[in-house]
Amino acid sequence: MPYSRALLGYALGFVGVVIFGATLPVTRLAVEWLDPWFVTAARAMFAGLLAAAILLVLRRRFPARHLGTLLMIAVFVVFGFPLTMALAMQLVPAAHGGVVLGILPLATAASATLIAGERPSPAFWMWSAIGAAIVVVFALRDSGLTFEIGDLLLLAATVCAAIGYTVSARLARIMPGWEVISWVVVLSLPVTIVATWWLWPAHTAAVPIDAWVALGYLAAFSQFLGFFAWNVGLAIGGISRVGQVQLLQTFVTLIIAALLLGEHIDLATILFAVAVVAVVAMGGRARVGMRNETGTA
């Protein structure tokens, strides 16, 4: 692969990681003033309108035969993940959420065993178990050995994202990845438009501009454009190479949480983040095969 092409792939992948890494801190900023249910609906609605405009300009044909799959993705990526994450950001710091969601790459790979026909090696499952244990210890360390509601919401967000990303990736094998997310948010418009109107804040003048800017970021970047950069980066530079850039996402979240929200990042949080990223890296190196029709690799 030419060096310039590989570099472009890494650059686009990094842009995607920065966009996604900022999602938790920006969501926490938004839900300080806006209802999380409204934030979930509005971010998807504005993303859907943007996607609809692009699809119309490019005259893309609606993939009717994939309607069921697109709706399934919407359930998890448009509604499940953003809502549980937004609710969690009312209860726990963004940095805390960044560490818990750091296990997402392993969760996504695990969900692929049920959905995409992949068969991870025993080593992968070992690293997944270690990663899950680290996240559980981190979640319990300040809560008297009981899960807080915020942690349960983050775990639910992880499951939703893992399933949504797996189904999206499977569909992206047969159609462009940017079209997948575009049609997903467009198909969600009948629900998101009504929900946004119904949940619109009664006193918009009381909401500071920072919260509206945060909502705009979530709609344009987190819900839509981030997928463009990430998917194109993977396509240009290769999934195995550029995919490793995702290991930086937890640290991006910690940095932005500190800079944007003034959150204190203690040494324990940093160490847990390093541990999670290291485990994800080792899990990513473990062999993952594909099942054939007889169930063998």
Number of domains: 1
In spatial order, strands of the major sheet run 1-2
Q: What fraction of residues sit in β-strands?
A: under 5%
- Coarse shape: globular
Largest sheet: 2 strands, antiparallel
N→C terminal distance: 28 Å
Structural class: mainly alpha
User: Got a strand count?
Assistant: 2
Give the % helix. over 70%
What is the H/E order?
A: HHHHHHEHHHHHHHHE
- Radius of gyration over alpha carbons? 19 Å
Q: Regions with pLDDT < 50 over 5+ consecutive residues? A: 292-297
* Count of alpha and pi helical runs: 14
Mean pLDDT: 87
Brief sketch in words of this structure:
The chain is mainly alpha-helical and 297 residues long. The chain is 74% helix and 2% strand. The protein is globular.
Defining key terms:
mainly alpha, 14 helices
Overview of the molecule:
- The chain has helices at 3-21, 23-31, 36-57, 67-88, 94-100, 104-115, 122-140, 149-171, 177-187, 189-199, 209-237, 239-242, 249-261, 267-285, and strands at 118-120, 288-290.
- The longest helix has 29 residues, at 209-237.
- The protein is an all-alpha fold and 297 residues long.
- 74% of the residues lie in helices and 2% in strands.
- Strands 1-2 form a two-stranded antiparallel ribbon.
- Residues 292-297 have low confidence and may be disordered.
- The protein has one domain (3-290).
- The protein contains 14 helices and two strands, in the order H-H-H-H-H-H-E-H-H-H-H-H-H-H-H-E.
- Helix 2 packs parallel to helix 13, helix 6 (104-115) packs across helix 8 and helix 9 (177-187) runs antiparallel to helix 11 (209-237).
- The relative contact order is 0.23.
